[in-house]
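Researcher: Structure for this, please.
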Amino acid sequence: MAQQTRIQFLLAYYNRFITLFPTVESLAAAPEEEVLKAWEGLGYYSRAKNLQKAARVIVQDYSGRIPDTKEELIALPGIGEYTAGAILSIAYDKPVPAVDGNVLRVFARLEDDDTDIMQPAAKRTTAKRVEQLFPAARAGCFTQALMELGALVCIPQNPKCENCPLVQDCYAFASHRQHILPIKAAKAAPKECEKTVLVIVNETGEILMRQRSETLLSGLWEFYMAEGRLTERQAMEHLCSLGFVDGVITPMGAAKHVFSHIIWHMTGYMCRVRGKILLSDYCWVDADTRAKLAVPAAFRHYVHQLSE
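Model: Predicted structure, token format:
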């Protein structure tokens, strides 16, 4: 959960998730829909899917015990160098580096290093330095100390150098460059897309929805979406083209959702219709069923209006 998500934000999700799935076995045995629902709102849903896939491998191949070697851990779905290092050092007290953005930032400043930390070579070099510095015991405490130093003191903007236990050894502080380090290549600007969300509701209160199969938000449920920003009149024409000839449309306002590589600008309409016209990939969902489905946070603005 902590991958690309702030700890303060995820704590409530973590506690609920652990309550629902307290063991590796319970997570492995759960329906994927329940896992995605428990993850709803955290984003990056592939993490939830990989977590469950890894749990199933652990139950099947390791009798429910998480592996304690780097090679075995990295072979599990969703686990890379960083997560493997965190598990091995914190859970098993092994001197294996867990190098994330916080640790890269700390070492870039300590060594006054201009290397772009987004380059793989920077991560390899930092991992070697961490390996060299591991104490003889308490590897987990050392790993967590580095993480906390970067998260709470050596922060990206306005680092709290006055509170840093390593300030006397920091070359960037000595050269007054702590505010410009680390060097990090700018990401490409995300693509911006216009979408129109049609919340199509029939006379019995069922809503037309579909489960996404695209890579983005795969497995989650969404309302009907049309490409482009449709006016109310255009939305009515589109509704008619789907076969709903006597629908009533009410604007639901605009919403915006930022993914890592794309931004959705959405315009929403409540569409009250008669009958149950079936569209490819879509199904009619009643209120009780909808409450159990995992719906992306992108549609939160429209979901909230349905419960008002």
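Researcher: Any notable elements?
Model: The longest helix spans residues 46-62. The longest strand covers residues 191-201.
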